Amino acid sequence: MERGVDNPQLRERLGVPSFEQRWPWFGGDLQTLRDTLREVDLPHDQGVPIEIPVPALPSGAAAAGSLLALLDQPEGDARGLVLLLHGLGGSSSREGLRRMGVALQAAGFAVLRLNLRGADPGRHLAGGTYAARCNSDLLPVIARARMLAAGRPLLGAGISLGGTMLLNAALASPGVLDGLFCASSPLDLAACSASIERPRNRVYQRWLLKRLVRQTLADPFGVSDEEQVTLQATPPRSIRDFDSAVTAPRWGFADVEAYYREASPLQHLVPACKAMPPTLLLQALDDPWVPASSAMDLAEVLPPDAAIRTLFTSRGGHNGFHGRDGCWGDQLAAAWLRDVVAG
């Protein structure tokens, strides 16, 4: 067995079987692309829209505005509320996020699907775009979610970069969440950026950049002249270029190196591991976007009594985990958060 793969004791406690790929979605790339290649069967979206005020960006690049969240209620009394965050280029309506939300509803949770700054729907409510560490946006959202939870546990679930944001929020303000699940979430932004820039990922990077540039230029509040020139006259060739030109300056970081260093939760998780809420990090070793090495290095140095648990699979791609009985990652998320609420 490969280093760090699987956590049978944890799976047994949660009542979740080991992950097995479903035909024909074999390998990291097909697991990653499954939702793009095959329509996801989802119920009609009946989320109740909620607008949550957020302050101006730290750099002043965008004024105060609001973020749009959609609240989904389960049948019967909710056992808790889960704040569910999408990843890079995503939104509350993306198939993978909605499917996880449906699984959490079926497990008895109310779900608050957030559109981060710049995402549609909700693009018209706030200028600018989001970042891996956007606590000035996220902490007010968590405070509103706590009110909506009405005394029940408030939990977080993040897909890809959404998990990174929730980790950073929990590090900045211990106690804001009662439990957390992160699927395929970058812990080291520089390593993740370098992974996306590999030649084998050229198509992925082009797709992500197209979405990010389009999302940025669609800002109804406008973009700066410098950003306009950068994004249209000399378009960024990599995620790192985009972060250097847009993300880092907008969020008040000195440069892209400072952004990647300061917004990467990896370096902070070990010293803060006992103050974190019960957290499960899920990562596939064949993830073509996010290298598993950062999470595996973290797992090796976490003390036994840390609040953070890790689970690695040999296969699964980037937030794929398409198994024989549906999305295994969604089932794991529901089982973990049920276990957290049960104490």
Quick summary:
With 343 residues, the chain is an alpha/beta fold.
List keywords for this structure.
globular, eight-stranded mixed beta sheet, two-stranded antiparallel sheet, alpha/beta, Rossmann fold
Please give a structural write-up.
The protein is α/β, with parallel strands linked by helices and 343 residues long. The chain has one domain (8-56, 64-195, 264-342): Rossmann fold, CATH 3.40.50.1820. It is built from 13 helices and ten strands. It has an eight-stranded mixed β-sheet, with helices on both faces. A two-stranded antiparallel sheet has the order 9-10. β9 and β10 form a beta hairpin. α3 (95-106) packs across α13 and α9 crosses α10. The two termini are 31 Å apart. The model has no long low-confidence stretch (mean pLDDT 95).
Remind me, CATH topology? Rossmann fold
At CATH level 2, the architecture is 3-Layer(aba) Sandwich
What's the helical proportion of residues?
Answer: 25-40%
Q: Biggest β-sheet, characterized? A: 8 strands, mixed
Structural class: alpha/beta
Radius of gyration: 19 Å
Number of helices: 13
